[in-house]
Design brief:
The protein is α/β, with parallel strands linked by helices. The protein has a single domain, classed as Glucose Oxidase, domain 3 (2-Layer Sandwich). It is built from 16 helices and 24 strands. The protein has helices spanning 7-22, 34-43, 64-67, 121-125, 137-147, 155-159, 188-198, 232-237, 300-306, 312-317, 361-365, 369-389, 397-412, 466-483, 510-520, 570-590; strands at 24-30, 51-55, 84-85, 98-99, 148-150, 175-177, 214-217, 222-223, 228-229, 246-250, 252-258, 270-276, 282-293, 309-310, 324-325, 337-344, 355-360, 417-426, 429-436, 444-446, 457-459, 495-496, 522-523, 554-556. Strands 1, 2, 10, 11, 12, 13 and 24 form a seven-stranded mixed beta sheet that branches. Strands 7, 16, 17, 18, 19, 22 and 23 form a seven-stranded antiparallel beta sheet that branches. Strands 3-4 form a two-stranded antiparallel ribbon. Helix 2 (34-43) runs parallel beside helix 16 (570-590), helix 12 (369-389) packs antiparallel against helix 13 and helix 14 crosses helix 15 (510-520). The radius of gyration is 23 Å and the shape is globular. The two termini are 37 Å apart. Keywords: FAD, Flavoprotein, Oxidoreductase, Signal.
Length: 591
């Protein structure tokens, strides 16, 4: 439904709203993003199940900035980008930092970098220890394969560095993955491979086997032969959009409508949702079975808060009556800060260079790792206090400390990777982009008012914990060593800052690096944790069935439920989680 000023158009909009008001669906899904469309596809496969998806974004199947894999970032700051910004960040000179997220049918999968990397096995096994029985690498692995349709690299792609392990990839899924035909030609791949090898990072065969340490060329979510981005809409929606039992409604879900009952079990029952039409009208829609929030880590918590689910003290300030006391809503936001180094080059090449290097604590700290392990362990209680102090009383020190110790164990005992570096070339520039993977600085996202569902307060609290800065500085120095090591150093020119000025010198102090990171800091756009799947005692919001605590029929299925960060990119894991969630929901309906 589109806003219009003509009388006929206005009447049509009113009538359409009235029709929507009278409709009842079995499942209402808030958000046609990466996860929401997986659920819509799987649930509507049964013609007796009526599914409605409410989404404010447009159909972008013919938008060249979406479909062309080479145009990554061009869609930023266009109408298909929410164009959020953070609250002022002290670690970035109190700047408010732009934050991009997809506003389209397909969500952020329409504007992301299309990277398909899963992560390290122990990181997913850790989910189970947080009260999520049955959530681990082994249980997720079949769903990674179920979602994927992998294209074997051609001989030319193999020569340009594309490698893979056949056993870990799916062949019949909905999401096309593979390597672009325009992998960088010439010798750049060999230069990068040899230089990273000289720094102690081996070339790995496949970064989707559950162990990512080393250097590799990553696959992407694209159809190689058509040179076409495969976002979630192209993967899960366009092929089934004519199903009569599947409807996408243009609008923005504002809150859940609760049934009024005298249920002595005090379990809240959702009877539908209230959404805002493009022309500002409020419409209610009825759900016979379930309401499922798939609006993403930055929006699903806002819908819960608008519905009276969250931290009572925060809801009271907003003038919202608390229905369910779940103070973890909107807390535990975990985002990865990104820093970029640029160098000029006269090296002539073309194409794409999706090269990733993953580092462990040992790689970054060397002989100091044992001392770092001990000192950071001793500081965890203080880190927990910092997280709690910034949370409006939403989280408890003991809970935060347990979660941080789980992450500390992954880093120093399980030896998972904690830093990622992108090595690429574009035009006349050599580029390193790097980010710490497992931050101890945890933030929040919350409503700012009952009428501001589209302008959340996003506070990632970058570098609240000093160890995160130590990791980021280590990654910066590592990238700097790369460009000054043969053979790749032979093609490197002057260093450049992405915001103007110079890079830190080779012998830069921690203070110089800190200033550079502050000046250039940007989001990595991998937010998770704001409606975490873990025990309610720990501050969790959803249980292992992804059902919101205290409700009978409300689930959350998106990045907000992921309780800990991992050494991959969100897309691969979100598809796997959504595929598993669909099976859970269908099984519950049949019980």
């Amino acid at each position: 439904m589109r806003a219009t000023t003509s009388p006929a158009g206005a009447l049509l909009a009113i009538l359409s709203a009235r029709v929507a008001y009278g409709e009842t669906y079995d499942y209402i899904i808030a958000g046609a993003g990466t996860c929401g469309l997986v659920l819509a596809n799987r649930l509507s496969a049964d013609p007796k199940i009526r599914v409605a998806v409410i989404e404010p974004g447009e159909d972008v199947r013919n938008n060249i900035n979406v479909t062309d894999p080479s145009l990554f970032t061009v869609a930023y700051d266009t109408p298909i980008d929410w164009q959020y910004s953070t609250t002022p960040q002290p670690a970035a000179g109190n700047r408010t930092i732009p934050w991009h997220a997809g506003k389209a049918i397909g969500g952020t999968s329409t504007i992301n970098g299309m990277t398909y990397i899963r992560g390290d096995k122990p990181q997913f096994d850790a989910w189970e220890s947080l009260g999520n029985e049955g959530w681990n690498w082994n249980t997720l692995f079949p769903y990674y394969k179920k979602a994927e349709k992998f294209t074997i690299p051609s001989a030319a792609q193999a020569a340009a560095g594309a490698t893979y392990e056949p056993a870990v990839h799916g062949e019949a899924g909905h999401v096309h993955t593979g390597f672009p035909f325009f992998l960088t030609n010439g010798s750049f791949h060999q230069l990068a491979t040899d230089t990273w090898s000289a720094l102690g990072f081996p070339l790995i065969q496949d970064d989707n086997v559950g162990s990512v340490r080393g250097f590799s060329v990553w696959p992407q979510t694209l159809d190689r032969d058509q040179n076409l981005r495969y976002d979630s809409a192209r993967s899960y929606y366009y092929g089934v959009e004519d199903r009569p039992n599947l409807t996408i409604i243009k609008g923005t879900v504002k809150k859940i409508i609760w049934a009024h009952s005298t249920n002595t079990s005090q379990v809240a029952v959702a009877e539908g949702v209230e959404y805002v039409t493009p022309d500002g009208k409020l419409v209610e829609l009825t759900a016979a079975d379930e309401v499922i929030l798939s609006a993403g880590a930055l929006r699903s918590p806002l819908i819960l808060e608008s519905s009276g689910v969250g931290n009572p003290s925060l809801l009271k300030k907003l003038g919202i009556e608390t229905l369910i006391d779940l103070p973890g809503v909107g807390e535990y936001l975990q985002e990865q800060p990104n820093t970029i180094l640029l160098y000029s080059t006269a090296y002539n090449t073309s194409g794409s260079a999706p090269y990733a290097t993953f580092s462990t604590a040992q790689d970054l700290f060397g002989s100091k790792t044992s001392a770092m392990k001990a000192s950071t362990s001793a500081q965890i209680p203080d880190w927990a206090k910092k997280v709690v102090a910034a949370s409006n009383g939403g989280v408890k020190e003991a809970n935060v400390e347990k979660l941080l110790r789980t992450q500390h164990d992954l880093i120093f005992n399980k030896n998972v990777t904690i830093g990622e570096s992108l090595t690429t070339i574009s035009g006349g520039a050599l580029i390193s982009a790097m980010w710490l993977l497992l931050p101890f600085s945890w933030g929040s996202v919350h409503l700012t008012s009952v009428d501001a569902i589209n302008t959340p307060a996003i506070d990632p609290r970058y570098f609240l914990v000093d160890f995160d800065l130590d990791v980021q500085i280590g990654l910066g120095r590592q990238a700097q060593r790369l460009w000054h090591t043969e053979p790749i150093s032979n093609i490197v020119g002057d260093g450049l800052s992405p915001v103007g000025g110079a890079l830190p010198p080779l012998n830069a102090t921690d203070e110089q690096w800190t200033q550079y990171i502050s000046d250039t800091l940007m989001p990595n756009h991998h937010p998770i944790g704001t409606a975490s799947m873990m025990s309610r005692d720990l501050g969790g919001v959803v249980d292992p069935k992804l059902k919101v605590y205290g409700t009978k029929n409300v689930r959350v299925v998106d990045g907000s439920v992921l309780p800990l960060q991992f050494s991959g990119h969100l897309t691969a894991t979100l598809y796997a989680v959504a595929e598993r969630a669909a099976e859970i929901i269908i099984k519950a309906a049949c019980a």
